[in-house]
Design a protein that fits this description.
With 193 residues, the protein is α/β, with parallel strands linked by helices. It is built from eight helices and four strands. The chain folds into two domains: 132 residues, Rossmann fold (3-Layer(aba) Sandwich), CATH 3.40.50.1390; 40 residues. Helices cover 48% and strands 9% of the residues.
Length: 193
């Protein structure tokens, strides 16, 4: 008899897994294993236990491939190992990423779904990095090339009637960097040109 086992993980601290668990139970999954965002993605005890209990003929259901895996390589390795053990798997969100009795996915759809997984995982990494940076008091993005000293020089050159392009060449920065820096309210009024 085929058992339906569910797995999910919290993508961000405090996001919770209740909606996923409800969805997995709605498709008949019992038990449902889960991991919190605070757990290192490479050492998820919930996933390890889930994979341990699965046997040939069982069906692993997850709401999204991003919930199952933290990287595209992990997803491929995990699902390959499951298939080798005779364990079927199903992604509720990405039907193309399903290996079940009688289910044959179109290779184009599989590649498209894997590309979507890679994009989602990069987005999750970026969002987490931004949260981590904010928690440490850092601003996300590239640091500005226009230091306070360069802004002061640029303002002085601009007051002498120099163009943004000329100022950029003198300072070794782009014209747009000069324009952005001088358009800031703290930089003072900007003369036309």
């Amino acid at each position: 008899m085929t058992r339906i086992v569910g797995y999910t993980r919290e993508l961000f601290a405090g996001a919770g897994t209740a909606a996923d668990v409800e969805q997995l139970e709605g498709v008949g999954a019992a038990p449902v294993f889960m991991d919190l965002a605070s757990v290192d993605v490479r050492k998820r005890p919930g996933l390890a236990e889930c994979l341990r209990v699965l046997g040939a003929g069982d069906l692993l259901v997850f709401t999204s491939s991003a919930r199952l895996s933290h990287s595209l390589a992990h997803f491929v390795l995990t699902t390959t190992a499951l298939a080798e053990r005779g364990v079927l798997f199903r992604s509720v969100a990405e039907q193309a990423l399903t290996a079940g009795a009688g289910h044959v996915s179109d290779p184009v759809q599989v590649l498209s779904a894997l590309g979507g997984l890679a994009r989602r995982l990069r987005s999750l990494e970026t969002r987490q990095g931004m949260k981590d940076a904010a928690a440490e008091g850092r601003h996300a993005g590239r640091p500005t090339v226009m230091t306070q000293e360069r802004v002061a020089i640029a303002q002085e050159l601009r007051n002498q009637g120099r163009s943004f392009t000329q100022i950029g060449r003198v300072l070794g920065v782009s014209t747009s960097a000069v324009q952005r820096a001088l358009s800031q309210p703290a930089a003072g009024p900007e003369s036309p040109g």
